[in-house]
Amino acid sequence: LQQRPPAAQQGGPAKAGQALPPQVPVPEGQRKRKLCIHYEAGQCRRGAECNFAHGPHELIVGSMDADYAKRPQTTRMDFTGLESLRNSRTVSIPSEQVKSIMTKSVRSLLMEVTGAHEVEWEPERCRATLHGTTNQLDKVARLLQRAVVHCNWGVTEQKIRNVIKPRTDFRSARVRLSPMCPALQGAVASLTPERSQVSMGSDPSNAIKVKGELVSRSHAVIEFDQARGAVYVIDFSTNGTFLNGKRLPAKASGKVLLSHGDELLLQDPTIEGGIAEFGYMVNIEMS
C-alpha cells in the first residue's frame, strides 16, 4: 500500500504554533511541475490525490516553480497610502490679506510645520489650494484660518509667521505702552509665566489706571502666553477696546494677538466729540 502524507500536508501548511511534520522524500517519478495554489492557502481538499505539488520538496528539480520556490520570500508593497497625497482642500483668504499671506516664505513655513505635500497660492481667486494627507490638510487649514482671524486687526508677515510657527523659548515679555494723547500716562509691564497678566481700567485695583468717560472699571487685560510665544489683549469693557482701529471681540469672548507697533485704543476713534487717539502705541520686547 502507498503511504499517505501526514494530515497537515494533505489539507495545507501547518498553522502558527503547530510543529511542522517531517518532509518525506518524494520519489522522482511522483514529483509535480507546479505548486498547488489551494494548498498554499490551506484550502486543498485532494490531499495526496492532488495533481499539484504540496511544497517545494514535491517539485521536479529544474521546473519553473522549483526555481521560484528557492527565491527569497518578499512582502507585497502597499501603495494605497500614496492616494492620500491626492487629497486637496481650498481655504479662502481675504483680499486685503493676500499680499501678506501668499508669499514664498509663508508657503515654505506651512509645509515645514505641517508636512503638507503642497500649498498652492491662487491670489487672483483669493484662495489657497492644499495637498496632503487628511491630517496635514487639517493642520494647514487651521493655521491659515487662525492667521486670517488675527490679521483682521492688522496684517504683517511677521504676525503671520508668529501664528504659524510660534517661538516657545521666550521666558518673558516687556510691554511698554506709549500714550498717544496728553490725557494718558505711559506704562511698562514685565510679564512672565508666573505673572502673565496686567490689567487696565478706571478701578484703582488695576495695574494700569486709566481715567476717561468711556473707560470701564475693568477695561482690558494684556496677557503673555508662553506656550504660544506671544502677547495677547482681551477686552472686558462695556464701550469697547480697539486694536489698529478695529473693535476687539466683546466681553472676553476671545483674545487677539498683540504685536509690536500696534495701536491700542480705549474708546471708539470714530465717535463724535471723542479723542481720536485715546490710547497707546505698543512696544513689545520678548526675551
Number of domains: 3
> Which CATH class of the largest domain applies here?
Mainly Beta
Total number of helical segments? 7
Q: Please provide the ordered H/E string of secondary-structure elements.
A: HHHEHHEEHHEEEEEEEEEEE
Extract low-pLDDT stretches: 5-11
What CATH calls the topology of the largest domain is Tumour Suppressor Smad4
Give the overall shape: rod-shaped
End-to-end Cα distance, whole Å, is: 92 Å
Q: Provide the residue-averaged pLDDT.
A: 87
Number of beta-strand segments: 14
What helical percentage do the residues reach? 10-25%
Q: Name the beta content range.
A: 15-25%
Give a short account of the largest sheet.
6 strands, antiparallel
CATH-defined architecture of the largest domain: Sandwich
List the quaternary state of the chains. Answer: single chain
Write out the strand line-up for the largest beta sheet, numbering strands in chain order.
5-4-14-13-10-11
Question: Explain this structure to me?
Answer:
The protein is built from seven helices and 14 strands. It is an alpha+beta fold and 287 residues long. The chain folds into three domains: 7-14 and 21-70, no CATH class; 80-164, Ribosomal Protein S8, Chain: A, domain 1; 173-286, Tumour Suppressor Smad4 (Sandwich), CATH 2.60.200.20. Helix 6 packs across helix 7 (157-164). The radius of gyration is 36 Å and the shape is rod-shaped. Residues 5-11 have low confidence and may be disordered. Residues 30-57 form the C3H1-type domain.
